[in-house]
Amino acid sequence: MAWPVLVFDIESIPDIAGLRLLRDDPADWSDAQVHEAWLAERKARGQNDFAPLHLQRVLVISVVFRNAEGLRVHSFVDRDGQSEGKVVQTFFHSIEKHQPQLVSWNGGGFDLPVLHYRGLRHGVEASRYWDMGEDDREHKWNNYISRYHMRHLDLMDLLAMYTPKNNAPLDAMAKLCGFPGKLGMDGSQVYPQYLDGKLEDIRRYCETDVMNTYLVYCRFQKMRGGFTEAEYGQEIAFVKETLGNLAPAEPHWDEYLRAWA
Questions:
Q1: Which is it for the CA torsion 215, 218, 220, 223, positive or negative?
Q2: Which residue, 191, 168, 155, is CA-closest to 12?
Q3: pLDDT tens-place string over residues 31-50
Q4: Residue 135: band (very low, low, confident or very high) from pLDDT cuts 50, 70, 90
Q5: C-alpha dihedral over 171, 172, 173, 178, to 10 degrees?
Q6: In contact, 226 and 157? CB cutoff 8 Å
Q7: Domain 5-260 class?
Q8: Which DSSP string do the residues of 89-151 spell out, in sequence order?
Q9: C-alpha dihedral (23, 29, 30, 31), degrees to nearest 10
Q10: Cα 77 to Cα 11: distance, rounded to the nearest angstrom
């Protein structure tokens, strides 16, 4: 399997500031009132409470970065409520610097479109990511944008043969493959947890989710011949060793390893 690989996952919340810009709510309304009014309108139209992608404010981007030097789990977090643009820019700077293979689960259907819209809003620069052959001829035939290229591998989309009715949830596939799956939270709980001030819990949840994606990706690489059986076993052991080293400082990895065992 070729390095480097950057597996990513985002957690987002409704963009209340964006709603204020696009709606005619009273200026003295609280964020909660703006959100409740928007939800009531959607309910009246028979719509769900999931914000459209351009109104998803990026809160956390978690990544597993694997190269010849090792494996790193890291998160870019908007801790002050004002740093969304910096978070998105830092993610795209990582692509610019390392030019990795991107790997996601539903990244083409959710994570990347959200990052596109939010990057556009904040004036983010991402020239390497958007190169489709204008600057580098290799990107004409294998770029991050095309659905059928491998420079960004959306595992969910590929395994479903690009047919949405065949999509499987990451949690189920991780558990079916013998990995821990989701621990203690799901996407629907992110906004309530954010309102309760539990940003670090959201960050930890995002990190375990992106680790699930990396492990399923390793299993996929074994299936397609990117790993031999022995190489796959070595990589899984290396992941466990890496997480074991992280566990003393980050207890969610201890919980993750216990769930794995």
A1: negative
A2: 191
A3: 999 999 999 999 999 999 99
A4: confident
A5: 90
A6: no
A7: alpha beta
A8: HHHHHHHHHH-PEEEESSIIIIIHHHHHHHHHHHT---HHHH-SSSS-THHHHS-SS-TT-SS
A9: 0
A10: 10
